[in-house]
Every structure is written in C-alpha cells, then in structure tokens.
DNA sequence: CTGAAAGCGCTTACAG
DNA sequence: CTGAAAGCGCTTACAG
C-alpha cells in the first residue's frame, strides 16, 4: 500500500542507463540520443516514475512556488479583487509547473523565501505604512506589487492608471449632464485610493465645475453605505471608488428617495462582480485585474530568474463600461 | 548580495557542536543539554540561520503543504464560499508551519502528491461525476471533501446538515404565514444542491402543504435571476438554496411587482456576504463555513499522519439568521 | 546526551 | 552523447 515511490535510480536500472541520462530525459535536455530517449521514456512509463520535487529543489535552489500575500486582516479574501487575481494567476502559473501559495502572514513571508519554500511573492492590498515591500526589496528578494508603492522604493509593480480611470468616470458623468459632483473615496492610506481621488479632483477642475463633495470610504460595502449617508442631498453625479462600495451606496440612495440614474448618476470602479448585482447595473471603470495578475506573475518569474535586473513597472489602461446607473 | 544561505554545518561550526545537535535544537528535541542548547541558539541567531525546507522534506518525506483544489472552471473563485474557506483554513494552517497551495487543475493533483509537493488535499465544489475523489481514495492519498460525496466512497468529509438547514427555512416561512412555497434549487449534480432540495420537500410535506414549485438554479447570481423569472406568480414563501442566487432573485421579484417580505417571504442559504448586500437584507440559513474549513484541515493533517486510519466525517448544524426578507 | 555516518533523490560539472 | 561522482542541506538510527 505505502510502497516507496519509484526513484531515478530504478528507472535507470530498468532502462540500463545512468541516472544522469534519465535525469536529462526527464528535464528534456535535447542532446540525448533518440533511441536512448525512447528506452528511457518507456522505462519511465512502465515504472510510473515521478520526480521528487524536494530532491530537485535541493539542488536547483528553486522552490517552484510563488506566494500570493494578503494583508493580515482576513477581510480582503472576501473582496472580489482577490478572486480575480487568483483567476488571473492560475492559468499562467500552471504551464510553468509553479505552485501558488496563499499566505496572510507578512511575518512569515521573509522566512518562507529564506527557507526556500517560496521563490518570490506577489503583494496585494498593501498599505503605505506596510514595511514588507521595503523589507523585501532591501533583502533583494523577488517581489511584485499589485499597485504603485506608497513610498518611493525601487520595486517592480503592476498598476492600472487609476487617475485616468477616475477621469473617465467624471467625463462620462459630465457628458450625461451631471454638474454637482461628489465622490466616495477608497482608503487613503493605499495608493489606488489616493490616485482615484486625485484623478477625480483634477478632472472635475478641468471641467470647470465647482468643488466636489468628498466622502471617505474604505473599499467595503458597509463603508460605502456609511459614506452614502454623508453625501449632500443635491448631488447629481457620483463617482464611487469601487464597485463593492457602490453596492452599499445604492440602497442608501434609494432609501433617501434618490432615483438612479434619474436623480443621481453613479459610476463605480473595478468592473467586478458586484457591479452586475447592483440595481440598476453599475456603469463602471474597468480595470483588467486578471490581465494585470498574469503580468505580475510574468514579472515575478523574470525577477526570480534574474534578481539583479532593474525593477520595472507595467501600467494598464482603464476603460469605461457603460451600464444603467449613469 | 547573493551570498549563500547559512547551513546547519556553519551553525555547528560556530557553536562547536555536531550538525546533529543543531538539528535537534532546531527541531526542539527535548533531550539536548540546557547549556549546549543555549550555545546553539546563540549561534543560530548570530548566523541568521534558517533551515532549508527542501532538504528537510527530502528526508522527512513531508512537503509541509496542503492543496485547496477548485474545480477546473474558474468561476468558483468568485463564489463567496471560496473566500470563507480560505479564511477558515489560513489560521489553523499557520501555527502548523504548513503552506496552503491553490490549484484548479484536477489533472495536476495526483501528480503533485506523488511528487511530494503536497501532503494532501481539500476538495471543494466537487460534482457527483468528478472522478478525483475516487482516484485519490483508491491511491490511498490524503483527501478531505467539503461535502458529502456523491457516490458512496469511503472518504473523509465535512458537511453541514443541508436537509436540516432547508427545514429550518421552511419552518420559518410557514411560521411567518407562508403557505404557497417554492424553491430555487442549487445544481443537482452536487450533493449540497440535492440535500437542500430534499430537506425542503420533506419539510413542506411535513407541514401538510401542497406540492411546492421547484425551479432549478446553479448557485450563481445569474442562475438565480433566471430561475426567479420561472417562478409562479402566487408564491408567498421562497427558499433560495444559496445567498448568491438570492441576490439575483430579489431584483427580479421587484421587477415583477412583488414586495419582499410583504408579498413573498424569502429565505436564503449560507449566510455569506451577499446576504447582507441584498435589499432587504436576507434571512438565511447559516452554515459555519470557516469552522468547517478549519475542521477539514484538522482531519486532513490527521490523515496525512496516519493514512491507514479509517475515514470519518463531521457534520455541522445549520442555524437560522433572521433579517428582513422573511 | 552527543557525534560520526549514512542516506533522502535529485542535478550537474567534468571526463571521456 | 553518456556516465561516475560529487554535492545540495538536512534527519535519524546507531554507537558510545
């Protein structure tokens, strides 16, 4: 039942070659003689051989695994963003034979890399005050951020042009006739929150509109609902900095007797699943999270292979998805 | 910059002891002499030693990692259930020093275990036709299912008493005066879908109520919306087999001019985040997914340590969470 | 209680 | 193109 797994040694014996040759066949080294290769392949399949990863890792010094690091508070697993990142990462990681390890412990991350359990990490939902990005870059450990870093550290990151996205929202609201604008912001200790607010303000100013109302939110549904209660009554164009918050904003607007989009037009940000569950369906700024996640993996793998290469960043363009709320 | 990591060997040299002794200290073997232990601990901290996991895995034959296996279609990462499982698993896995590996490739799973990359796996969202559970159990590989298996295979699983949960919903609807009941089911090729429907039917019969309307859903929001359109107009009590579906059902009900709860009372299932985003907030049957996930990890770890032990199952009790929809 | 030594299962220069 | 051999960094009987 619990018989020992087949080793390279046994395959070599069956095939009548050396372990080195079997290893070469397994790893697809091109120089192996055709006939020999076939003999070995046959031996592999008859023995049911499967290489032991720990042994390989020990000599190659590669874990064959990357980490997806969440903030310590576990609420973020419920954020739709998380699922989108995962579904963007999985398909690109798979053909590479790399594992995706989920962790919520920032404390563990450095050790996990040092122990050789992780080749590198992707950090999502980082706060400006988070020491981890700097820690990792200082130690020259492979890391990719899912947004512009809060402090100017040389680090590889992927982002969407957040400010441009906010401008897209404003332009649309204005085009639809809105003049008294307001925004529900994201958390301002994170760069996406900051950049969306900045982009919003700049666009409003560019249109020569009066100073907009700004109410603070935190990227959660409840935060959105709370913020909505603090909105001035005469707003006719609202930019909510995330769809999840918007799903909390809309019922409050309805309670306050405001019809969407007739009385107030609303644009969200993300184009995540909650946008569709909104009533009415939410017009929103789309960020291509799945593509961004795939790019993060590529950049990370690149950094794992060449840690000395300079850091870089990739910024995606947002697009507007028009539905019924604006 | 890229200096070689510190090894046991070096720590031993610094401490003036053998590698074996350092290893014992690192692994907390109690028999080490107090003074020696202190010398070694000091050497560990001055050298900044961190054990290499691959080397350890190679001899212990333990990956120190378990897999969370999603179905191949990636839609399920957007299901709120997924996030709840992750947030239940993470805290219990952490003190154990075990990694959580996410995978959506059923094909890979068996190999990953054989390669020693995974000590065992937790399977979620399995369909009755899914060959993986049987495959794994046959090979005597450690596996835990997140629900009763569709076919009677000897397998370890955790479940909530789905039928009892549905009965809770029916009892509540009836207590609130509903008499013309209906249900939107989950996918019937999965046991939770089957069991919730069975429990619903049995409870309706127990109350002596007429044959209820049964409309098929698939645990998605869109599926819920579609199902809602097929509901008879005179229903006054509706059991929707998941909160996510309910969030799709409610807007359709509203469109059809039905007020909730005045015209039709609605009870969901799960008590997941979408229940709160519903308008009105959803009365629902709570399944303690986080606790269930924690239990799955415990059972899995147990099986990894003693694969020959008989399989077992743990069934949690559902509870009713009353909000405004019923 | 401690150490010398074997061994886990691979990969990879190095010869030939 | 192939093989003998060293070595990756640990753990763990086995002596003493």
TrEMBL record, chains A, B:
The keyword Transcription belongs to this UniProt entry's keyword annotation: yes
SMART domains, alphabetized: HTH_LACI
GO molecular function: DNA-binding transcription factor activity; transcription cis-regulatory region binding
Transcription recorded as keyword: yes
Pfam families noted in UniProt: LacI, Peripla_BP_3
HTH lacI-type domain segment(s): 6-60
Organism superkingdom: Bacteria
InterPro entries referenced in this protein's UniProt entry, alphabetically: HTH_LacI (IPR000843), LacI/GalR-like_sensor (IPR046335), Lambda_DNA-bd_dom_sf (IPR010982), Peripla_BP_I (IPR028082)
Record CDD domains: HTH_LacI (cd01392), PBP1_LacI_sugar_binding-like (cd06267)
Keywords: DNA-binding, Transcription, Transcription regulation
Name this protein carries in UniProt: LacI family transcriptional regulator
The species this protein was found in: Saccharothrix variisporea
């Amino acid at each position: 039942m619990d018989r020992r797994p087949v080793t390279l040694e046994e395959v070599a014996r069956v095939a009548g070659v050396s372990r080195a040759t079997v290893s070469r066949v397994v790893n697809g080294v091109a120089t192996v003689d055709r006939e020999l290769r076939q003999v070995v392949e046959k031996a592999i399949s008859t023995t049911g051989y499967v290489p032991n990863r720990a042994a390989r890792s020990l000599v190659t010094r590669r874990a064959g695994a990357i980490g997806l690091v969440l903030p310590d508070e576990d609420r973020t697993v419920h954020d739709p963003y998380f699922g989108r990142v995962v579904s963007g990462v999985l398909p690109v990681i798979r053909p590479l034979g790399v594992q995706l390890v989920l962790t919520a412990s920032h404390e563990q991350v450095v050790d996990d890399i040092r122990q050789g359990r992780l080749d590198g990490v992707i950090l999502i939902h980082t706060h400006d005050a988070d020491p981890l990005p700097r820690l990792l870059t200082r130690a020259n450990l492979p890391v990719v951020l899912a947004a512009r870093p809060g402090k100017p550290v040389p680090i590889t990151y992927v982002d969407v042009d957040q400010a441009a996205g906010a401008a897209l929202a404003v332009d649309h609201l204005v085009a639809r006739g809105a003049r008294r604008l307001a925004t529900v912001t994201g958390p301002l200790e994170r760069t996406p929150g900051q950049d969306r607010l900045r982009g919003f303000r700049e666009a409003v100013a560019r249109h020569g509109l009066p100073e907009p109302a700004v109410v603070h939110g935190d990227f959660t549904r409840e935060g959105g609902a709370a913020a909505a209660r603090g909105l001035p009554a005469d707003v006719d164009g609202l930019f909510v900095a995330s769809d999840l918050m918007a799903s909390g904003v809309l019922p409050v607007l309805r309670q306050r007797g405001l019809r969407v989009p007739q009385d107030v037009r609303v644009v969200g940000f993300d184009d995540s699943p909650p946008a569709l569950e909104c009533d009415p369906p939410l017009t929103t700024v789309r960020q291509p999270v799945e593509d961004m996640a795939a790019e993060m993996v590529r950049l990370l793998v690149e950094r794992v292979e060449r840690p000395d290469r300079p850091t870089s960043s990739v910024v995606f363009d947002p697009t507007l998805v028009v539905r019924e709320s604006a």
